Description:
Layout: H1 2-20, E1 40-42, H2 59-82, E2 87-89, H3 133-136
Parallel strand pairs: 1-2
Helix pairs in contact: 1-2
Function: Catalytic release of biotin from biocytin, the product of biotin-dependent carboxylases degradation.
Family: Belongs to the carbon-nitrogen hydrolase superfamily. BTD/VNN family.
Protein name: Biotinidase
Amino acid sequence: MSGARSKLALFLCGCYVVALGAHTGEESVAEHHEAEYYVAAVYEHPSILSPNPVALISRQEALELMNQNLDIYEQQVVTAAQKGVQIIVFPEDGIHGFNFTRTSIYPFLDFMPSPQVVGWNPCLEPRRFNDTESLTL
C-alpha cells in the first residue's frame, strides 16, 4: 500500500504546485496580489469504473480502480503544468465513478472522524487511522 500512498501524495503535491504556480520558479499568485489572471484547465476522461457499480467489491479492488484514475490525473497534472496551467479541475466522481447503491459505494469511502471529537489532519498524520488510504495514497 505504500506505493499507492506515494502516488496520491505525489498527485496532491503536483496539484498544489500547479495551483500555486511554483513549477515556474516565479513568485506564486498567492504571494503576488497584483496578478490579474491565472491559467486554469478542466480535465475529464472516461473514468475506469467498477464493471458493476451495484455489486459489492473489496476495499483492495476499490483502491485499485481509484489508483488507475489517479494515475491518469497525475499524468494530466504534469502535462498541464508544462503548459503553464496554475490550477486544474477534475470531475466530481472521476476517481471512483457513480451509480452505486448505499452498500456498494462503501469500499470506495474513507473514514472521516468528527472534527468536534478528533483533531486530525491526514496530511500531518497519514497513518493515524487504518481506513483512510485514499486520503493519503
